[in-house]
UniProtKB/TrEMBL annotation:
Superkingdom of the organism of origin: Bacteria
Biological source species: Streptomyces microflavus
Keywords: Phosphate transport, Signal, Transport
Protein name: Phosphate-binding protein
Database matches in SUPFAM superfamilies: Periplasmic binding protein-like II
Entry similarity comment: Belongs to the PstS family.
GO molecular function ontology, one term from the record: phosphate ion binding
Gene this protein is translated from: pstS
GO biological process: phosphate ion transmembrane transport
Family annotation (Pfam families): PBP_like_2 (PF12849)
Segments forming domain PBP: 55-348
Amino acid sequence: MKLQRKNRLRATALGALAVSGALVLTACGSDDNSAGDAPSTGGKTTAASSIDCGKAKGQLRASGSSAQKNAMDLWVKNYMAACSGVEINYNSSSSGEGIVAFNQGTVGFAGSDSALKPEEVAESKKSCKTGQGINLPMVGGPVAVGYNLEGVDKLTLDAPTLAKIFDTKIKKWNDPAIAKLNDGVKLPDKAIQAFHRSEDSGTTQNLGKYLGAAAPNDWKYEAEKKWPAPGGQAASGSSGIAAQVKQVDGAIGYFELSYAKSQSISTVAINTGGSAPAEATSENASKAIAAAKIKGTGKDLALDLDYTTKAEGAYPLVLVTYEVVCDTGNKPETLDTVKSFLSYAASDDGQKILTEAGYAPIPAEINAKVRETVNSLS
């Protein structure tokens, strides 16, 4: 009977995952993904898994960055398969919406492609009660610049050219600036259809940081989550931009690499001034992220990335997605589940699977501090 009950609970958890996934896909703009709490069993449930479920129980709601959605899907699937009676519901909306939900106290943690601003930290003290929001780097990877150009399967751009394209200063694919970087490539006399995010997005902010640092003369905008430049076309979420690039000939847009991989979208190699253009790969992104320094204080582990690196093979247009949690003052009913789930995400196993989806693991030295901080949450 015990075995049958265990199997029923396992089926319930997996069924809840399917429902959760459907909700994420159909309600990207909403945090209203509520469902009834599943029964708690706690503890390790599978001998083959290294996941420690601890005292995790019930439902944990989270929301934010769509750039980390594919990583989160993998983590949630593995975690819920190991921890019967626990439901993790991550609403892939945007970094901005995730932080708002976190500061309103409606989610256990938020995903953001940019570290909290001082005013967001101040706001977080209302929901964290005894503490404040902190940034835990959990997912790294390249921001891929995907394009759809019939007859062109290899394309190189540099930061100034990208800046002019997304600022609609370069309007045709056969512009001399693009041709100069692509000797021997037959570029069509076709209008460029540049897509950007319609909602506040940490991915947008990371693109802005890169363009501002690597092409300061051509990108004069502040690096904000809201798209700053005039013109272009907007789409919702990384998935929305990827879908538009996939179907529109002449399109270009930005999203994390797994969207390009899953939909077979061609990506731009970036000329950084090194011996060869850097391709958007997990390995090349890791080369850039490895040089990051922790700029946060206390338990905050926000990173300072070098967007102007010329290290051999390093792909400079990278992002790090943070899980935003309270250092102290987390809700008692979800604290154990938050700690258990994020401990798995930061574990060796959790980080290893990132490369399968086009992400880059967080460097080991930084990740060790993430694990220590997760363990100390209260």
